[in-house]
Amino acid sequence: MAPASPPPHPDSPASPARLVVLVSGSGTNLQALLDAIADEGAAGYGAEIVAVGADRADIAGLGRAERAGLPTFVCRVKDYADRAAWDRALAEATARYAPDLVISAGFMKIVGAEFLARFGGRTVNTHPALLPSFPGAHGVRDALAYGAKVTGCTVHFVDDGVDTGPIIAQGVVEIRDEDDESALHERIKEVERTLLVEVVGRLARHGYRIEGRKVRIS
């Protein structure tokens, strides 16, 4: 993957990095980003959310965005002839807001070639396991079933694989004997929200480059 162009430098308070956030459900990661930006200001945090997109209508994540006064858009797979058409529509809707970074905050759809052609190296995702272990939709369940003693969360860039993009940062969560999937996932989510806010802010404030599988934050 070609090196990513760094976002605007934070020395210019009028030009924080522009974020488009994609959601599929409750939007707790979106809320964590909104809270961080509200606490520090866009100039201090280094970024501002300019729009929120979703693959479903009438979800809590869109409600959070609307209460924050943010524009929203919805691209439902079923509204398009095929997955490629949906991917193209999602890319076009996202591009309207000229984002420096796209944040997949619990977005439960895999983006395709058109989206990656526009936003590859600029799309950040979270996963509830320590990649490359336990990729896919059931990372928490799979770690428990395997008998792992620790798991956690990964913040990574999206590529054309499933949870295979370059890793930016990881957080570790101990697996307790009494854990079931729900309890473990809730503890992972707490770490994930904190890590995502930290990582996005660092990328936005300092810029970065991708060298093979290494992400270098300036």
UniProtKB/TrEMBL annotation:
Class of the enzyme per the UniProt entry, highest EC level: transferase
Annotated site location: Raises pKa of active site His: D163
Binding of (6R)-10-formyltetrahydrofolate, residues: R83, M108, K109, I110, V111, N125
Start and end residues of each Formyl transferase N-terminal domain: 18-200
Superkingdom field: Bacteria
Catalytic site: H127
InterPro entries in the cross-refs: Formyl_transf_N, Formyl_transf_N_sf, GART, GART_AS
Pfam families: Formyl_trans_N
EC number: 2.1.2.2
Known catalytic reactions: N(1)-(5-phospho-beta-D-ribosyl)glycinamide + (6R)-10-formyltetrahydrofolate = N(2)-formyl-N(1)-(5-phospho-beta-D-ribosyl)glycinamide + (6S)-5,6,7,8-tetrahydrofolate + H(+)
Record pathway: Purine metabolism; IMP biosynthesis via de novo pathway; N(2)-formyl-N(1)-(5-phospho-D-ribosyl)glycinamide from N(1)-(5-phospho-D-ribosyl)glycinamide (10-formyl THF route): step 1/1
Alphabetical keyword list: Purine biosynthesis, Transferase
Protein's UniProt keywords contain Transferase: yes
Residues reported in the UniProt entry to bind N(1)-(5-phospho-beta-D-ribosyl)glycinamide: G27, T28, N29
Gene Ontology molecular function, alphabetical: phosphoribosylglycinamide formyltransferase activity
UniProt cross-references to NCBIfam families, sorted A to Z: PurN
Record-stated family: Belongs to the GART family.
Function: Catalyzes the transfer of a formyl group from 10-formyltetrahydrofolate to 5-phospho-ribosyl-glycinamide (GAR), producing 5-phospho-ribosyl-N-formylglycinamide (FGAR) and tetrahydrofolate.
Entry-linked HAMAP family: PurN (MF_01930)
Protein name: Phosphoribosylglycinamide formyltransferase
Gene assigned in the entry: purN
